[in-house]
Amino acid sequence: MSENEIKYVQEAFASNWIAPLGPYVDRFEKEIANYLGGGNCAALNSGTSAIHLALILSGVEAGDHVICPTFTFSATANPILYQKAIPVFVDSEMETWNMDPVLLRKAIEFCINKNKKPKAIIIVHLYGMPCKLKELLEIAEEYEIPVIEDAAESLGSKYNNRYTGTFSKFGVLSFNGNKIITTSGGGALFSEDKNAIEKARFLATQSRDKALHYQHSEIGYNYRLSNICAAIGCGQMEMRTRIQQRRKNFELYSELLSDTPGIEFLQELENTFSNRWLTTITVDPAFTGTNNLTIISALENENIECRPLWKPLHLQPVFSSFPSFNNGNSEALFNSGLCLPSGSSLHPDDLSEICETIKECIKA
């Protein structure tokens, strides 16, 4: 938190704008859109809401197939089920840990052979690392399937010097408490299409028609961001500093663990820039003599929180019955990977303590 968050929240209270509309909502939307290079933005109460609205605006209905990475947080896939559609999961390639273009093509052909051409493809920039956008978008364009870009973890990341979240008709952002910037809870839908964003705002405010009384011609949702939360977001907009801190975390971790056999870091490809939202590693027991879960336990004993990588969705009980195209990569990453503490306020001494605990665990 900086000083501006409290200042703006107090101004919002003083003006009595505490509803899910108001000056700070408008300002936050403009600031996010301007940061991304221009376009249109609807401020919402979560990134999950943004994915849901993007699916609706892409025409996804009950029984439709939607392709989704398996190696991601469940919020990427949950809105597919909100629409009573069918998720088709696709495994990862190992260079970025994101959706494998080869398996994407196989998944599309599978759906087409069932006379169920996918209505949408959701791609994700996992842990802030841009996916292989060129390959994935070319395949989507070849089959004329709209793409929804889940950039919830990658605000500020770039592909070919252009921000993630801006390569498709719909980009999804998250401002949850652990993201690069936060509104405590919140998200946004981004698009170059002004009419689509206006429709998103309409749906997000219970689809209230323009009438003196409350009239509704279609189903809507209570998805708008409050003016108070937007005020926090406006105070958080010093993005460059926050991304620099996350990248410093990665650089220091890499330096401190550079002489530790069996510890590998996810590296940027030549044409990408990662916000390094989380610093992630994989642990090879053949070299370390231990595994990721043992390291988590050792860190917990020192009151240091550390987590495994995402458990693939095709292995989750709630999604296990849906089609999936797997190569074993996401499962291997889940079984070997760790998310290290990566907060923007961490001090170098904190990172040194974390790395020393990891090294001691490996020595043991």
Feature tags:
four-stranded antiparallel sheet, eight-stranded mixed sheet, alpha/beta, 13 helices, 364 residues, 15 strands
Q: TL;DR of this structure?
A:
39% of the residues lie in helices and 15% in strands.
Proportion in β-strands: 15-25%
Strand order in space, largest sheet: 1-9-8-5-4-2-3-14
> How do the helices and strands follow one another from N- to C-terminus?
HHEHEHEHEHEEEEEHHHEEEHHEEHEH
Query: Structural class per helix/strand content?
Result: alpha/beta
Shape: globular
Mean pLDDT: 95
Helix content: 25-40%
| Strand runs, count | 15
Q: What's the N-to-C terminus distance?
A: 39 Å
Query: What is the number of helices?
Result: 13
Alpha carbon gyration radius: 21 Å
> Which parts are unreliable, with pLDDT below 50 for 5 consecutive residues or more?
none
Q: Let me know the largest β-sheet.
A: 8 strands, mixed
